[in-house]
Amino acid sequence: MQPTLNATVFIVDDDASVREALAWLLRTRRLPSEAFDSAQVFDDQLRAGRVRTTDPCCLLLDVRMPGLSGLALFDTLIERGLIQAMPVIFLTGHADVPTAVDAVKRGAFDFCEKPFSDNALVDRIEQATLRCPANTCKRWAKGAGAAQAGRADRARARCDAAGGGGPGPTS
Question: Phi/psi zone of residue 32: left (φ > 0), alpha (ψ -120 to 50 degrees), beta?
């Protein structure tokens, strides 16, 4: 697997033990994370600009939470056009095939049932962060090499102008 270029994994789950276990798992794999105890808190932080989607990131989102549900937050992220910048991996203890299929069709990166395999989840997180437009731009520009520094600068400018999008992966 390619490096995730310091991607941040946002964990949104109302169960403290799940948040702590996920944060520990990610630390053991050298993946930085930030945890939120509700979808509302995450959304408030996102609106306030304290959650950066311009850097490589991924969102682990519990489906069922009191107040604003994970599915409702997902709808909000779709409305704001943030799904491409922040791939969403749903986590649920209540497997519901139609809900999972619908979420993936609407742009979720994946839908994982609790309990999940640690290795499989980390693999999916790494794959999701590699698809982030911000990460794609960084990998593309980094791969340009020192001899092509001018092209790399232009690539970064194109990526910035496109809101983090840009050329596809080099692999």
Answer: beta
Under 8 Å CB-to-CB from 53, ≥6 apart: which residues?
A: 46, 82, 85, 86, 134, 164
Asked if 13 and 19 count as a contact pair (C-beta separation under 8 A), the reply is: yes
Radius of gyration of the chain (CA): 16
Q: pLDDT of the chain along its 171 residues, tens only? A: 444 457 999 999 999 999 999 999 999 999 999 999 999 999 999 999 999 888 889 999 999 999 999 999 999 999 999 988 999 999 988 767 888 889 999 999 999 988 889 999 999 999 999 887 776 555 444 544 433 444 444 444 444 444 444 333 333
Please answer whether residues 132 and 86 qualify as being in contact, where contact means their C-beta atoms are separated by less than 8 angstroms.
yes
Residue 138: Cβ-neighbour burial (10 angstroms; 0-12, 13-18, 19+): buried
DSSP string, 78-137: HHTT-TTTS-EEEEESS--HHHHHHHHHTT-SEEEESS--HHHHHHHHHHHHHHSHHHHH
CA 62 from centre of chain = 13
Both structure tokens of 12: 């949104």
